[in-house]
Every structure is written in C-alpha cells, then in structure tokens.
C-alpha cells in the first residue's frame, strides 16, 4: 500500500507523481494504478484537490489523474501515461509490437477511456439519471459533472445507447478471443482499461473496494438495456484481471 500525500509533498518528491481522485474507483485513476502495478513502477500518489490552486498550477489540470515524472511536462491522458509507463518499464509490454495490433489496442483505449468512450459515456449516462430521474449521481454531483464534462440535456437519451453499443462490442470481442484476454493469451493495456471501467457498472465488493454507500448505489444504477448489455463475460474478465494481475484491495 502506498501513502497518499498532499500537493506540496508531491511536488517535492522525486520520480513519478500521480494525482488520484480519492474515495471512489474512478476508472481513469484505477487504470493508471493498474498499469503501474503490473509494471512494478515506483510512484507517489498525490490526493487530487480541484480547489488547490498550487496543484492546478503544478499539473495544469482541474481533473485527475495527471502524471508528473521528474522535470518533464505533466501528462493528463491515460494514453500518454500508458506510453510513459512503457518507456519507464518496457517489460511486461502492454502495447503489442505488431503495428496493426498496437493500433487496435490504442483505439480500444480511446473507446474505453477517451472522450465519447465507454467510461465517458457511462459518466454522462449517470449524470442524466441524476438530472432527470432517480438513481445515478445525486443532484449536486450530477450538476457539477454535467458542467465539467459537457452534459447536454437534449442529448441525454443518446448516452445510454452509446454505452450499450460499446458494452456489446467488447463483450463480442472477448467472446471471439481464444484466451482469457482480449487478445488471446496476451494481456494488453486494453485489458486493464476494460476491467477498471466495470467499476462504473458493478463495483467490486466492499471488502476489497470500500466506498460510500450512496456512491456505490449511484455506480450500480442500470436501466434495462444497460443491464442486459453488461454481459457475464465482461465481469468474468474483470474478475480474472483482479485475481491475477491487479492490486487488491483497492486503495481509494
């Protein structure tokens, strides 16, 4: 287990520092933690504080994760941080050497973690629930996230179908794989990303993922089509990843 520090201690530390949202299994932060764990890279977690002017000035961001390695420029996208991890610890490789397969893994990363991807769309789906009905993020949280991440009320009914389409796409890809991972017997960054995104649908049990009861209820809000698309093989893949590769319990 690693001890979280505040901004001033994080800035003063050497090596790799990463700001992390606390209290919930935010998939973006959990992916970064997972990649660094798999690669056994030493790093210092820094508690994210969107009101901390010093942190914002240091990272250039009002969201997390942001990675700062030595005196290098801060990196704020999961794709950039995965690339940094590959540079710091080339083995085990999480991006394939084969050019075409590497491109596919990177595209999967965007489909899972990028703007308009599964995690992004699921977050907006939960915002839409909170803004229009029961479930999802509570009113204050929903309003904050709506303003921050571009929720558009007139598009509210489109977020769910996007989530469903991507869940089905990844479930089908897993079903066609000849091994426990997306690419047969080879684990890639996309496997870590897919496993961590599942927290937005079905967080791990409280004994390994301790989170506030209301937050858990928000994450677990599922309408009929989303519940149907959350195929058993997606959760089985997540369970395999945590049983064999990712750190438990989660340190939130």
Automatic annotation (TrEMBL):
Residues 160-199 form the Glutathione S-transferase C-terminal domain. The keyword Transferase applies. Keywords: Transferase. The keyword NADP does not apply. Pfam families: GST_C_3 (PF14497). It comes from the Bacteria. This is Glutathione S-transferase.
